[in-house]
Structure formats: C-alpha cells, structure tokens
Automatic annotation (TrEMBL):
It comes from Oryza nivara. It is found in: Mitochondrion; Plastid, Chloroplast. Its cofactor is Zn(2+). This is cysteine--tRNA ligase. Belongs to the class-I aminoacyl-tRNA synthetase family. Residues 40-65 are annotated as: Disordered. Its EC number is 6.1.1.16. Residues 425-494 form the Cysteinyl-tRNA synthetase class Ia DALR domain. GO terms for molecular function: ATP binding; cysteine-tRNA ligase activity; metal ion binding. Keywords: Aminoacyl-tRNA synthetase, ATP-binding, Chloroplast, Ligase, Metal-binding, Mitochondrion, Nucleotide-binding, Plastid, Protein biosynthesis, Transit peptide, Zinc. One of its GO terms (cellular component) is chloroplast. Residues 43-65 have a biased composition (Low complexity).
C-alpha cells in the first residue's frame, strides 16, 4: 500500500537510508548567493538545462531516443483558452513583464505564489531554448507606502528601499532567478509623463486641477480582458468617487501633489503618477509597445491590467500583448488571506521554521492558475517530500562518487525506460500550461527505483547498478533545476531541513540524541513499552527514528497527529 502511494506521489516518501558517515562540506562558490549556487559536484550555467540538451543527454548517456521538444501551450486570460505559445519574433527574444510588489511591508505567501509561478515560466522558456527578457518592477511610490512611512516616521523612499531589499532576499531564498531588469517607478517619471501626454493628445485623457484622468468612454475596448461592462464600473467599486470626473470609472494617470508627499514637476503641475500608468510606461520602455507575455496575480486582471491595456493602446494604437497570464489566489486554512482576518502569512514567518524550498515545493504542488490552500499540514508534507528527495539523491551521490562509467556502455532496458518516461512526463506536463504538480509526481517512480537499487538486496545485485543510479540522478537533477528546486548541495539542504525540524520541535539535536540513548537502553532492558513511548513522543513533534544495522538515527517527518490527515489527501 505504501509503495503504491509513493509511486503515485500522493504521500510524503518516508524512506531513509541507513546511518553512515557524511561527506564533508564542499567549499561554496563565492560569486553567487548560498541558495543559488550550482550543485557542488557539477558545473551548471545560470540557464536551466535546455530541452535539446535533456534529450541529447538521454540519447548519449543511456540509449533512450532523443525526442523533439514539445510545443508550449499557455492559458491566455484574454482569449479564455489555452493557446500555442509562438514568440512575436520567431527565434528572437521573448519579452515578459510581470507586475512587481509595492514594498511597504514584508512580502507574503501570495507574493511567493506569484513570483515562483513566473519564475518557473521563465526557467521553462529558457529550457525550451528561448531567449527571454524578463522585466519585473517595483512600485516604490504609492499611497500605501506614504501612509506606512508617515506611520513609522520614515522617509517613503527609505522605507520602500528597505522592503525592496527584503523582497529580493526572499526571492533569492525561494530560488527565483533575478529578472533581466527590475525598474523602479521613481526612476521613470519622464517616461510616465511622456506617455500621459500622448494619451491626452489622442483624446483619451483630460486634466482637472492638477489631476489627469483616463476617459474610459473614449476607449471602446475597455473591459475586454476582464469581461466587465462599463456599466459595472460605476461608483461603489474600488474607484475613488470624484465629482469632477466625466465618468465614475475614469481612473487617475497623474495625482496632484499633496502637502508632505513626494512629487515631481509635470505639465499639469507638481504631482506623482497614478498606480496603473507606471507599468504601461515601463513595459513600453524596456520591451516596446508590443511584446509577448504580461503576467501577475488574478487580482490584477481588474482594474490594473484592464487599465494598462487601455493606457497602452491609447498611447500607441499598435500596442498589443500576445499572452496575458495570471496565477490564482492563496487561501489560508480555507479562508481568504487578509490582514483584517489575522491570517496574513509572510514569507519570513514561514521560513523561520521551514526551508524556503519546502515552501516552493508546496506552491508547485498546485497548478498555478488554481487557488491554493495554505495549511501547516500541507507545508509539512512538502517539507517531508523534499527531505526524501534530497536524501535519495545524496545517498546516490555517495554511492557513485568513486565510480566512473565507461563511455558507450548501454544501461539496462528498465533504466532507460524509466528515464525516458520521466523525460516524457516532465515535458508533457510542463508544456501543457506548466502543470508543475504532475512534473513533481513524475520523479516519484525514479526515486523509488533508486532507493531499491541503493538499499534492497535485489537492487544491489542489479547489473549496471551504479551506472543506472548515476543516470537517474542526472535526469532528476535536470527536472529539479527547471522547477527551481535544485539546491547548492544535497548535503547542505538536508542539514538545513534537519535544523528547521528541530526548531519546529523546540528541541536541540543533543536532546534528540539523548532520547535515542534512553530508547536504546530501554530496548536493551526489554522495556519495550518505554521504548515505544519515546518513539511516539518524538514522532509527535515531527522527529522519526530510523533503526538500522549501525544503530538508530533520526530524520524530520510529518508529525504523528497529522499523518492520518496526510494519508486521506
């Protein structure tokens, strides 16, 4: 039954290797952040392994046929269907703009969900050999920033810079690759003013008392992205009611200066940009008026992205974006996450107790367009699954460390079939609108096969055992790289996962080892009831004991009280 669950990827994989001496830490590469360094035994370029390289490697290393890279299909919010991704310029650079954060507070798991999703898209496009120019902005001047700065008695730009830096640190820990460009609104005021002037010249905006508003009635296509009709956008929705506006749905392009707020000179007097215009101006500046992909959270479809389309096309009638991509919401314990409900969860709060890649694993376990329900139970599942994955790959590395396979030696058919199946399932799922949950499930069977080769009598006798282990580890490593789950070293990641587990259990490793000694003594004295109590006591706080020929070791696990919940999901 357990094997069936493991193969299906529905349960954390709880196997562990026998106790053995661990390899010493490798010296880290100095030029990259700790969680973004390449794997310690292999040389990786920053670009994820390409589809061609993946297939060529399958052919060269194990005899599996090299398959043609699959065509990518993405769900386009504007057309409301999945479409074949075709770059605007065949063979040219793919332009992708993703709306960034307004840095006035710590980033939350909703931000993690969005930027992990688009990081995977960025990585997979590069895997498919596309060159990508990825732009993600900072809204570093905004009503929320000003209000928070006034509350804290801090300069608005100092506050936004501080939270921007924290956000970048969070993204690095989550293995999100840096975008090509990360523009800030405050550095692009000239571009914003020029675009507003163009919109006014094209009779789609008007100035009143130092403010400038977009005239939605002068843009007939307004509402095409969201499907909303103009009559739906009357007073009562989240649009400030201003009796001077020609239509209650008209929105601000430029806001007249207020006392104590940052402002810039403009043809309409001192002021600052409205929220929506910034993304239109910066995307046009870095990608042109027409580009391939625009992304963001589902909550941005209306009004932000609807307004972006209106602004961009009003400024340049030829402006067009081919694919509008949006990720789903994050709920917390089946409730919408919000500060008012007291269930607002920051990335940093999560990573105090969990490895950042456990959070990433959790997020990738649900399709990016579906709502995701954040619970501690499911985060424990993801953390446990991550530990099992890295432990298997670490055990494989240790076994194969001194082995050098002979070039051209064919692998057993069952090994090549397993590798080719992983390759096909990975590309099929990812090319079908980035089904990361299916891609993750695809590594379950190879991991099980690897554990059999590593730890069972039958597996240890298999022909070309070490060659098979090495080839499967290489393929899984490629999958993890594209998903952003490849650590700088398996060993270091396992140590970090253990440290987080101890913190959740409110124990030190010395205390765990003391409990193991007490249990060993109880077993020698045939006090089996006491021995079981110690095991259950540790299992209750997420510490699993593993008995082996070399004694008893421990590993993180799903707490005992949650295992019934996990088995039923």
């Amino acid at each position: 039954m357990a094997a069936a669950r493991r193969a299906a990827g529905l349960l954390p994989l709880l196997l562990s290797s026998p106790s053995r001496a661990r390899l010493p830490h490798r010296q880290a590469l100095a030029l990259t952040p700790p969680l973004l360094r390449p794997h310690r035994l292999y040389s990786h370029s920053p670009k994820p392994s390409s589809s061609a390289a993946f297939s060529a490697s399958a052919s060269a290393s194990n005899g599996a046929p090299a398959g043609r890279a699959r065509e990518l299909h993405l769900y386009n919010t504007k057309s409301r269907r999945k479409e074949l991704f075709q770059p605007r310029v065949p063979g040219g650079e793919v332009g992708m703009y993703v709306c960034g954060v307004t840095p006035y507070d710590d980033s939350h798991i909703g931000h993690a969900r969005a930027y992990v999703a688009f990081d995977v898209l960025y990585r997979y496009l590069r895997y498919l050999d596309h060159k990508v120019r990825y732009v993600r902005n900072f809204t570093d001047i905004d009503d929320k920033i000003i209000a928070r700065a006034n509350q804290l008695g801090e300069d608005p730009f100092s506050l936004s810079k501080r939270y921007s830096d924290d956000f970048l640190s969070d993204m690095a820990n989550l293995h999100c690759l840096p975008p090509s460009v990360e523009p800030r609104v405050s550095d692009h005021i000239d571009q914003i003013i020029n675009m507003i002037k163009q919109i006014i010249d094209n009779d789609c905006a008007y100035a009143i008392g130092g403010d400038v508003y977009f005239s939605v009635e002068n843009f007939p296509e307004y509402g095409d992205l969201s499907g909303r009709k103009l009559d739906d956008n009357r007073a009562g929705e989240r649009v400030a009611v201003d009796e001077r506006k020609k239509n209650p749905a008209d929105f601000a392009l430029w806001k007249a200066a207020k006392d104590g707020e940052p402002s810039w000179d403009s043809p309409w007097g001192p002021g600052r940009p409205g929220w929506h215009i910034e993304c239109s101006a910066m995307s046009a500046h870095y990608l042109g008026h027409s580009f391939d992909i625009h992304g963001g959270g589902e909550d941005l479809i209306f009004p932000h992205h609807e307004n972006e389309i209106a602004q961009s096309r009003a400024a340049c009638c030829d402006s067009s974006i081919n694919y509008w991509i949006h990720n789903g919401f994050v709920n917390v314990n089946s409730q919408k996450m919000s500060k008012s409900l007291g269930n607002f969860v920051t990335i940093r709060k999560v990573t105090e107790l969990y490895h950042p890649l456990a959070l990433r694993m959790f997020l990738l376990g649900t399709h990016y367009r579906s709502p995701i329900n954040y619970t501690i139970e499911q985060l424990n599942v993801a953390s446990d699954r991550l530990y099992y994955t890295y432990q298997t790959l670490q055990d494989c590395e240790e076994s194969c460390q001194q082995h050098q396979s002979k070039a051209g030696d064919p692998l057993p058919v069952n090994t090549t079939n397993c590798i080719q199946k992983l390759h096909d399932e990975f590309e099929t799922s990812m090319s079908d609108d980035l089904h990361t949950s299916v891609a993750l499930a695809a590594i379950s069977e190879p991991l099980k096969v690897m554990n059999d080769l590593l730890h069972t009598r039958k597996g240890k006798k298999q022909e070309k055992r070490l060659e098979s282990l090495s080839a499967m580890e290489e393929k899984i490593r490629m999958v993890l790289s594209v998903l952003g789950l490849l650590p700088s070293s398996y060993y270091e990641a396992l140590q970090q996962l253990r440290e987080k587990a101890l913190r959740r259990a409110s124990m030190t490793e010395e205390q765990v080892l003391q409990k193991i000694e007490e249990r060993t003594s109880a077993r020698k004295a045939k006090q089996y009831e006491k021995s079981d109590e110690i095991r259950k006591e540790l299992a209750a706080v997420g510490i699993a004991l593993m008995d082996g020929p070399d004694g008893t070791t421990w590993r993180p696990s799903v707490p005992l009280s949650e295992q019934g919940v996990v088995a039923s999901t």
